[in-house]
Amino acid sequence: MILTMKSKTVHLSLASSLALLVQLSGGGAGAQGAQTFDCVIEPAVIVDLASPVGGLIDDIAVVRGDIVSKGQVVAKLESGVEITTVELMALRAGSAAEVDAFRARLALAQSREERLSTLIERGIGTKEELEDAQAAVRVAESEIRMAEMRLRAAQVEMKRAEAVLEQRTIVSPIDGLVLDRMLDTGEYADRDTAVIRIAQLDPLHVEAFLPIDMFARLKPGDSAQVRPAPPISGDYTGELIVVDRVFDAASSTFGVRIEVSNAELNIPAGHRCVVEFSEAE
């Protein structure tokens, strides 16, 4: 599975809009000196899932709006040949018949060698016969090693065949929401074409641009209160996780990112909000 993960950042036009709002409003002040600023709620991550190998799509198990879990199968490519290959490799890897046959041959050769040794000690038999028996033992031992190597190779080939088959299955790398299906059953998927787009909605990232006089007052780990714009209601506590250290000279602002838990998925992404830093003075 090939995926492209996009850490959600505010686009230039959105950044300019928020920065302009900050300049025009100068932020808001509450009764106790709390300041509020315009912000936007975004998914933490958006993932475009593609297939690492080309093939026809056999099944897509999700539709737009579905909630998916990390590791959940979301699509499969046609894989009849690969399944048959795995079955064949499993038969070869699971059979020790060749090794057992050579071990039996070794046991027979060793028994013959022992008998000839006893006969020679009694003055019966020849040295040449004993040497032939000893050579047969060495050959049988070598054949066992070769058979064991072939068995191990078959086991490795089986793992390889299983890995190839696994590439025909696309799974979600995150818990999230299906945003779009770019392909459907029967269409051809390749490495360069996304099949499904998934957004991670827990946690959410809240992006805001603040005037530069706020820079010294904030640090990662600070808490913030986020209030989505109507018709979404509620007051949510988030944690400041990014404070940009490069200012926007044109607007005299800098960006911040707040992470907000959204385990119940009550907060929609792609929505405006206001953020309040109650401890900023």
Overall description:
The radius of gyration is 34 Å and the shape is elongated. 33% of the residues lie in helices and 34% in strands. The chain is built from four helices and 14 strands. The protein is an alpha+beta fold and 281 residues long. The longest helix has 40 residues, at 127-166. The two termini are 49 Å apart. The chain has a six-stranded antiparallel barrel with strand order 3-10-13-12-11-14. Strands 7-6-4-9 form a four-stranded antiparallel sheet, with no helix packed on it. The chain has helices at residues 12-25, 80-93, 97-121, 127-166; strands spanning 2-7, 28-29, 35-50, 55-60, 67-68, 73-77, 169-171, 176-181, 188-189, 194-211, 223-228, 236-243, 253-260, 271-277.
Summarize the SSE layout with pairings.
Elements: E1 2-7, H1 12-25, E2 28-29, E3 35-50, E4 55-60, E5 67-68, E6 73-77, H2 80-93, H3 97-121, H4 127-166, E7 169-171, E8 176-181, E9 188-189, E10 194-211, E11 223-228, E12 236-243, E13 253-260, E14 271-277
